[in-house]
Amino acid sequence: MIRQIVSGGQTGVDRAALDFAIKYGIDYFGFIPRNRRAEDGRIPDTYTFLVETESYDYRVRTVKNLIYADGTLIIYRYLIGGTRLTYQKCKELGKPLYLIAINKDFDFLEEREKFNNWLKNHRVSILNVAGNRESEAQGIYGVSFRLLERLLLPLEPKDSR
Q1: With the C-alpha atoms ordered 130, 134, 140, 142, is the resulting torsion angle positive or negative?
Q2: How far, in Å, CA of 66 to CA of 141, rounded?
Q3: What's the burial of 55, exposed, middle or buried (CB within 10 Å: 0-12/13-18/19+)?
Q4: Do the domain assignments include residue 36?
Q5: Considering its fold, how many domains does the chain have in total?
Q6: Confidence of residue 161 (pLDDT cuts 50, 70, 90)
Q7: Fewest Cβ atoms nearer than 10 Å: which of 40, 80, 106, 156?
């Protein structure tokens, strides 16, 4: 079971993860760049449980977040920039990694089962969620938010009529 969601606070997937955690009462945390730097300006102060690093460099917080977490989920359309760095660093450091490419068709129930098995097998309770920023993959915030709901929330009971 996920105890905490970790995010770097960037637009897109990172913000979707934070907003998902807040909406559903899941603890969240994350290292973020100095002065709360993000592509849309400053990461809003409403995300209170984020800690600024001493660096403006996004790479610093990326590495700190994946080291802090038990495992990383990458939601992506394109494996570029910081998303690619997250992938490479997880591999380099031997950290558990799960990838979901949103530009490919997949069965949500099957993906949910595989993802939850991955969580159990790697004993992930602190999950780093990373992926494309909004400018790299327009609309990824909404897709990621709905995907997290489908992956992590209990399934609705089937109608017994």
Answers
A1: positive
A2: 20
A3: middle
A4: yes
A5: 1
A6: very low
A7: 156
* Domain interval for residue 148: 4-152
CB 145 within 8 A of CB 11: no
Nearest to 23 by CA among 15, 11, 31: 15
Side chain identity at 161, as an amino acid letter? R
pLDDT tens digits for 114-159? 999 999 999 999 999 999 999 999 999 999 999 999 999 986 655 4
55: which 2 tokens?
A: 């660096």
Spatial strand order of the sheet with 71-76 comes to 50-52, 27-32, 4-6, 126-131, 71-76, 97-101
- Find the helix or strand (DSSP H, E) in which 6 lies: strand 4-6
DSSP class of residue 41 equals: E
The helix/strand/coil state of 129 is strand
pLDDT digits (tens, 9 = 90+) for 19-76: 999 999 999 999 999 999 999 999 999 999 999 999 999 999 999 999 999 999 999 9
Whole-angstrom distance, CA of residue 129 vs CA of residue 147 = 12
